[in-house]
Structure formats: C-alpha cells, structure tokens
Amino acid sequence: MAKLGEIVQKVRSKNAGPFWLTIDIFCGDVEAFEQTRNGLSTDRVSAVFATDINHIKRFEIPSLNVIKFSFPRPEIQGSIHDRDIHGASWAALLSDVQLN
Asked: End-to-end distance of the chain based on CA atoms, in angstroms?
C-alpha cells in the first residue's frame, strides 16, 4: 500500500467560501486517477477530517484526472477558533492516507 501523496501529482486544499473547504487531488494520469478513485473512499475522507459523511461532496473529473472533496469547515473562516484562515493545511492530512 502507498500513501496518496506518493501516487498523485498534488493534493491541494483551499477555502470554498468562509463556510466550506475543498480538497483537490491532481492525479496526473489515468492510472493514478483509477488507483485513487478505487482506493480512497468517501468514508475514509470522512474519518480523516472527522466530518459527517452526509456533508461531504465528492466530485470525480476523469477528463482532468482530478478528484475533489468539499465539506463544511469546522470553524467559520477568520473566526477566533479558526487555525487555518486559508484552508491550506488540510491537504497534508489527506496526503498521508494509505490507499486500499
């Protein structure tokens, strides 16, 4: 088994407005896309980010070899409890996930 970050070109996270985060997985080629598609379940993403699976949106874009996940931020962007105002550090958590 390999970590997601070892298989794909880039994992990027960012704000999708003040209430949502988006994780972009740039696979680079069809093989990495299929391996990620089959090895990274939405359940697994839900567990990594401690987010209700019913709140996670999954987007697969085969023509670009990209998989995206969007989910509500645990804290509103810029609030006193927000520790990542740009949403950039979330990608590291997913990069370390072992694919099935």
From this structure: 7
Where residue 41 falls (left for φ over 0; alpha for ψ -120 to 50; beta otherwise) is: beta
Quick one: how far is CA 12 from the chain centroid?
Answer: 7
Cα–Cα distance measured from residue 11 to residue 82, given in angstroms and rounded to the nearest whole number: 21
CB 62: neighbour CB atoms within 10 A?
12
pLDDT tens figures, 56-94? 999 999 999 999 999 999 899 989 998 888 889 999 999
3 state DSSP class of 82: coil
- Prediction pTM value: 0.92
Interstrand relation of 57-61 and 20-26 (parallel, antiparallel or unpaired): unpaired
What CA–CA distance (Å, rounded) separates 96 from 22?
17
CA distances from 23 to 18, 19, 37, 80 (A): 15, 14, 14, 23
Length of the chain: 100
